[in-house]
Amino acid sequence: MSFVEPVTLRDRGVRLEPLALEHKAGLAAAAADGELWKIRVTSVPEPHETRSYIEAALLGREQGHRFAFAVLDDESGKVLGTTSYHDILPAVRRVEIGYTWYARSVQRTHVNTSAKLLLLAHAFGTLGCHVVGWRTDNFNFASQRAIERLGAKKDGVIRGHALRRDGTIRDTVMYSMRSGEWPEARAQLLYLLEQHAPAT
């Protein structure tokens, strides 16, 4: 039995379901919305790379170190992007959240906050994680702000840690949240989502 079992999570019109090859066309369209693969500090696939991107994610799931989700509009089923648990360490009950990207048209909306709330609630509430982590490129300032907005704490920087798609070597900024910090972070995330709620 795997630490992370297949599950579909949904809230506030956002649905996370296990990433599969059937999401290929929708994921390619999401990447094309804003030509996200041209952003130097991300690893978004070009449309023709989408199948191999999904296959790599499925291999990570089979090997037990990554579990990828498609992020969809729950009503229409439109693929909005993707996110994953990765660097899954069952022995110490730790997962990281990453490989996250969204179509430009849904960036700066409630989608990312809703997806993170679902993933964090599942990690701490269902999987019993002690720690959830994040990592990002030292030049991906938007990602760093988004992670900090979730309530994660900066652990430090691993210098010369990974290759970017352009062949340069990046420093990696590491963040984490402990289970004891989750209740306050959850309250803040719910507050932020209320700011996005439509007026009645």
From TrEMBL:
GO MF, one term, reads:
acyltransferase activity
**Acyltransferase is among the record's keywords:** yes
The main enzyme category here is transferase
Enzyme Commission number(s) from the entry: 2.3.-.-
- Start and end residues of each N-acetyltransferase domain: 15-153
Domain of life, source organism: Bacteria
Keywords annotated in UniProt: Acyltransferase, Transferase
Query: What is the name listed in the Swiss-Prot or TrEMBL entry for this protein?
Result: GNAT family N-acetyltransferase
Biological source species: Comamonas terrae
Q: Read off the lineage from the record.
A: Bacteria, Pseudomonadati, Pseudomonadota, Betaproteobacteria, Burkholderiales
